[in-house]
Design brief:
four-stranded antiparallel β-sheet; 8 helices; binds flavin mononucleotide; 29% helix; TIM Barrel; alpha/beta
Length: 312
């Protein structure tokens, strides 16, 4: 076969969807890349497809008590508690740094009520340097007994529709995997007006220190991320790509170029790298270089020719 492949020296890696123009399909996952500035000493932010910020709320949040992170056999558990500076401080103190780069800024956000979600979205809608919003629906709905918005398709639909009304920018809705059938929430998100779906957020988990007999994180239950969750994430990405018409961003356990390629082959238009950034702050550059080498090796002139080419 290889003698038929075109000789490629510089593959085209740019992808375009929902009005977003990305130099390549790689971006950090929210909460693992701070507000970008923290990673600037290690990575050229101009090389990234996009920058995705830590999740923002209307007011600053201090997060959960420590310990908030525990390493597991093939990943990590975290219960940071969505610590963040709040939307106003972000716009004032963090946006000027991010605007220096020729890289789209995706702002991740959340709320405790529908009203809060809509308020944060409306505030960010007025900020010219923000390319798109990523809505984290893995948050408890305080008005409705703490059930997580994203685990109830009706609650997900309602809150997404409220946000949609206040937002002109592209809306990425990030799904939680802690549901029986991810296709149902994905469909609700599309119906409510999402432009893009990203998935997956962390899987709920728990770990116990057998000597102290205490949970290894103070919040008792945390979110599992890292390479151990990747097969779940690839499966869910595949199912969602088959269900909705809108573009999908794949997330979960991407540590190497090959891992990112799995998501692209099942049909994700872009991918996010999370836990890998904690292992190696330069991981995204290494993954990007690996994707380029793979395209050269496989004679792929344009990464778009690889997306959604899963053979069944
Ligand atoms: C420490 C930590 C903080 C996170 N914070 C957020 C957040 O603020 N908003 C969000 O939508 N996802 C958050 N996530 C979830 C990640 O963005 C990502 O969906 C998840 O970790 C799976 O990807 P990974 O296996 O590559 O880490 C966080 C994950 C970690 C590990």
């Amino acid at each position: 076969m290889s003698h038929c492949r075109p000789s490629v020296t510089k593959p085209r890696l740019a992808v375009e969807f929902a009005g977003l123009k990305l130099k390549n399909p790689l971006m950090p996952a929210s909460g693992t890349f701070g507000y970008g500035e923290e990673f600037a000493p290690y990575l050229d932010l101009d090389q990234m497809g996009a920058i995705v910020t830590k999740g923002l709320s209307l007011n600053p949040k201090a997060g959960n008590p420590t310990p908030r992170i525990a390493e597991t056999v093939s990943g990590m558990l975290n219960a940071i508690g969505l610590q963040n500076v709040g939307v106003e401080a972000f716009i004032r103190d963090k946006m000027p740094f991010l605007e220096q780069f020729d890289t789209p800024v995706v702002v991740n956000f959340f709320g405790n009520t529908q009203v809060e979600y809509a308020e944060v979205a409306a505030r960010l809608n007025d900020v010219p340097g923000v390319a798109a919003l990523e809505m984290n629906i893995s948050c408890p709905n305080v008005k409705h007994g703490g059930i997580v918005f994203g685990t109830d398709p009706k609650a997900a639909f309602d809150v997404i529709a409220k946000v949609r009304k206040r937002l002109d920018k592209p809306l990425i809705v990030k799904l939680t995997p802690n549901v029986t059938d991810i296709r149902v929430t994905a469909q609700a998100a599309e119906d409510a007006g999402a432009d893009v779906i990203s998935l997956i957020n962390t899987l709920t988990g728990m770990a116990v220190d057998v000597r102290t007999r205490r949970p290894r994180i103070a919040n008792v239950i945390g979110g599992l991320s890292g390479p151990g969750i990747r097969p779940v994430a690839v499966r869910m990405t595949h199912q969602v790509v088959q269900t909705v018409k809108i573009p999908v961003i794949g997330i979960g356990g991407i540590m190497r170029a090959e891992d990112a390629l799995e998501f692209l082959i099942v049909g994700a238009r872009a991918v996010q790298v999370g836990t890998a950034n904690f292992v190696d702050p330069n991981a995204m550059q290494t993954i990007l270089d690996g994707i380029e080498s793979f395209c050269i090796e496989q004679g792929i002139e344009d990464i778009n020719d690889l997306i959604g080419t899963l053979e069944l």
